[in-house]
Amino acid sequence: MEKENNIALSSAGTSRVRQRKRSNEVIPEPSKPNGGTLLVDDRNKYKSMWIQTYSTVWMIGGFALVVYMGHLYITAMVVVIQIFMAKELFNLLRKGHEDEHLPGFRLLNWHFFFTAMLFVYGRLLSQPLVNSVTPEKFLYQFVSSLIKYQMAICYFLYIAGFMWFILTLKKNMYKYQFRQYAWTHMILIVVFTQSSFTVANIFEGIFWFLLPASLIVINDIFAYVVGFFFGRTPLIKLSPKKTWEGFIGASVTTMISAFVLANILGQFQWLTCPRKDLSTGWLQCDPGPLFKREYYTLPGWISQWFPWKEISILPVQWHALCLGLFASIIAPFGGFFASGFKRAFKIKDFGDSIPGHGGITDRMDCQSFIVREGISVEMILDQVLTKLTFEEQQTLLTKLGQILQDRLGHS
Prior knowledge:
The protein is 67% helix and 4% strand. With 411 residues, it is mainly α. The longest helix has 31 residues, at 174-204. It holds the Pfam family CTP_transf_1.
């Protein structure tokens, strides 16, 4: 009997050892993406693909509708995106149990945010705002005065926020409050640096906003599609799903799309004309030299094989190739930055604003910003009428007359 018990205990122990060995055995995992097999072999990715495809279609449709409505609606879209970006970033390092002891502390963050918004957009939209009101109205004088003292207003709003912050400091919470104060200013730099150029591009012509944004979308989509079906070689450790095949395929596609899109978009005046006021409606203007066709005669050996003897190209198409190159090489680093940022703070996504795509901040890739510098007679006259007093205008007229008389005398 005792021998049988020993045998039973021995067999039980042996079975436990075997189970323990089995539990310690490394179970072979299915091949991961970017490994030795193609990404398409990972069946779990198809669900994610359909979610991203569905949300992408809705985003592109909504974006096209906003662009069709004009400059003001595009600017409003940028402002809304900014607010969502700021909200996501404000919440990133937020601690609910700390905020419970600081009533009104979150409101201080938004005070700094809207002060920065007034500073940035006040400078960008000052001239279009003045052009939108007539000199006979009281509103014109009010707007002129508001623009004239805009810097002072923003300065005192910031000082008020600074004093507000000092008065809300509480014992045992200094470190958290100063960390949030620094984080708020970092958010303002990240959000408003790129958006200020974006808004400036919109009023220089929707073309300069739409083309770079479209190239970013095209590059992002084809990097995903090519990487999905042909991706094999990892590109960067920060984004394990990014592959060299997707990067190269997206680059070629983006360059071709840039050349073709510039030709298509450059034919519409309502996309190329700059907006000088805050009115709505389509624009008509004399297209600049970048949007006037140039004709090139093809070599004779080409005309023997093809029916074309010459081709017409918009000069802006050569600029578009540079934008395409920028979008192909530099823009993906915006996504890499977001990936590294998420890993640094151990979060999956910035937010749930865009299903299947992460938060708004995660989609703000680097864009090409082109602000064309130009000064016209109308712009100078507007500055003289809005910035100078009547006496200063008379002095300017007198000095300008003397300078012109001297030049005529020397000539």
